[in-house]
Amino acid sequence: MSGDLAPAANRPYEVIQIEVEDLVHEHHYLLMSAVCNALYMETKMTLSDLRAVLKGTTAEPSDEWNAIIRDATSNAVVIFAISKSPSGERIEQAGTGTLVFLDGAYYILTAAHVWDTVLVRSEKLGITIRMGRALPNTFSIEIGAITVIAFPRQRDCEEWGPDLALLGIPELHVGIVEAFRPFHNLSAPPKNLQDSDFLEVWMLCGAPQILGEFSETQAHAHGRAFQVRVESSHHHAEFDYLDVWAHWPSSTTPARFGGVSGGGLWRLQLYIEPLSGKIGCIRTLEGVAFYQLHIVEDHGVIRCHGPESLRLLAQHCAEKKA
Hints:
The protein has 322 residues and is an alpha+beta fold. The protein has helices at 30-40, 47-53, 63-72, 112-116, 171-178, 307-321, and strands at 3-4, 11-13, 18-20, 76-85, 88-102, 105-110, 124-127, 140-142, 148-150, 165-168, 184-185, 199-206, 213-214, 219-221, 224-236, 239-247, 264-272, 279-296, 299-305. Helix 1 (30-40) crosses helix 2. The longest helix has 15 residues, at 307-321.
């Protein structure tokens, strides 16, 4: 079903414990498997060698490749809305976000509808700053302490938004978050390998709510790093958009991307380091997911704001702070 990538109804909880699985890649694609094979090789490689390996497959990803993916997804968080209820507290998965640093301040970059349709009516915002079932998250921020920077949304034109928001993290909370998770510097100029030979991989970080597990006392969100491909790009008004094709990871669970809203779209440039012969990686935040266009069998097409929209948001933030 088309529409915002917002999750379904909330659930009552007496004790809030939020857990998230490590964001690891889904190896449904030859490219992922081929890079795993390449990383196992001890001899120095050229990129031509790496391209040749793309014709091969492997059953499991290597530790080295998982390390690249974990680094690429280190800024991703699952966002929860926590509210009071007669039984104690109520928790609702609001979406996904990216921890970013911009002009001296710290934010959660997400889709605007994650804020104005879910979080704004809650008491607290919770995010997953620790990973794994043995490490429950109890970190939260009072909603009233959060500063929101966003563009006005056109309610009758959800597929075009604009649907971007920066949720300001109060200074007293920044140290707690940084102790567990890094912030991506949104002010830093992007790095590109224009004069070098490289392979390109696109990833979308998100936590589909339907893949999570919920009980009376805890929520277990299942974070994913979807390998995606860019199907098309668009401009509407002053904003840019990237429509990406994402494979659904489960053959037993219906394909629903609710909960992925606000997830970061990343571009990874893989290259061969000339001295060591090892595979290097440059990652660039290229967009934010906000709208599911359609589902076809085992994949969906997700609309994301693109890099120009992110630059406009940064400019809007600077104007608001001036």
